[in-house]
């Protein structure tokens, strides 16, 4: 039987992580490094990307805005030059400003879609190109959200639409890349305790918006608590490693049971 190391280990592999500077992305970088991967830590915040990379055994930090086509192409090229191969993309970066639907401007709508939807398209496109060129297949893990499946909290419509797109892009491309050995899956967090989530809630209160919706209802979080970044990262490691070699196109909820409540 194959060893745990062969199944879940990432030795000799290179992973590019978007949004790696903090929160879930940072936990992914740290866990994947423990599993033996070399990591390209990518974030719009260059300082945190470099800090996270600097604390890992074999990693480099890159500043990239994933909504910008030139920057995404340049970053993948720089990572290819530095590491020589790409085995996994864990795409974590996203924004989640809470906005009232009726007063949201088209520019605010476009901002969410530019980062979360166009950004997902761009990083997937570049990762698939790099993996195809490498000829060894690979794994892509997109962090989507339960909000892409189900209305979860109020004032979150633009974000929910962008995450529905992320989950759908996962499925669409899974069937188009399977023949070259590239598996593509999504992880759907429910609520996770991160700096980004805390800041979004505080901004919402400042904007006078109500926090409500199914996810805040009694009994809707069967495990009775929000998740921690590491609990999302472990699901990513499963889907990026050979442990999930027969899994593609799925959406794995990591949500404390929200979607079945
Ligand atoms: N925290 C939650 O409750 C929750 C719930 C469901 C899904 N998610 C998803 O999990 C992922 C991580 O969320 P988090 O809570 O860790 O967020 P976070 O805000 O703490 O971290 C996100 C990171 O992405 C980076 N980023 C933002 N815009 C970028 C851009 N244009 N280009 C490159 N990097 C950019 C930020 O600088 C930051 O380091 C996101 O995809 C989010 O939608 C989070």
Automatic annotation (TrEMBL):
Gene3D superfamilies: NAD(P)-binding Rossmann-like Domain. It comes from Sphingomonas tagetis. Residues 13-181 form the Ketoreductase domain. Keywords: NAD, Oxidoreductase. Pfam families: adh_short_C2 (PF13561). Belongs to the short-chain dehydrogenases/reductases (SDR) family. This is SDR family oxidoreductase. GO terms for molecular function: oxidoreductase activity. The keyword Ribonucleoprotein does not apply. It comes from the Bacteria.
């Amino acid at each position: 039987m194959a060893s745990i190391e062969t199944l879940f280990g990432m030795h000799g592999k290179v992973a590019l992580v978007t949004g790696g500077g903090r929160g879930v992305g940072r936990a992914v970088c740290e866990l994947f490094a423990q599993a033996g991967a070399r990591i390209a830590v990518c974030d719009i915040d260059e300082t945190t990307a470099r800090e996270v990379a600097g604390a890992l055994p074999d990693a480099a930090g890159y500043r990239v805005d994933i909504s910008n086509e030139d920057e995404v192409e340049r970053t993948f090229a720089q990572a290819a030059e530095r590491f020589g191969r790409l085995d996994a993309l864990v795409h974590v970066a996203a924004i989640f400003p809470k906005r009232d639907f009726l007063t949201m401007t088209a520019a605010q709508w476009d901002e969410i879609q530019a980062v979360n939807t166009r950004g997902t398209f761009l990083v997937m496109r570049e990762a698939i190109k790099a993996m195809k060129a490498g000829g060894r297949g690979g794994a892509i893990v997109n962090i989507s959200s339960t909000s892409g499946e189900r209305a979860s909290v109020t004032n979150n419509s633009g974000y929910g639409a962008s995450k529905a797109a992320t989950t759908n892009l996962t499925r669409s491309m899974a069937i188009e890349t399977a023949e070259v050995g590239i598996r593509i899956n999504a992880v759907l967090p429910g609520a996770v305790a991160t700096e980004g989530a805390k800041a979004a809630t505080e901004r919402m209160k400042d904007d006078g918006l109500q926090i409500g919706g199914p996810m805040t209802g009694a009994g809707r979080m069967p495990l009775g608590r929000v998740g921690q970044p590491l609990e999302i990262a472990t699901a990513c490691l499963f889907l990026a490693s050979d442990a999930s070699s027969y899994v593609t196109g799925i959406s794995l909820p990591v949500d404390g049971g929200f979607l079945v409540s």
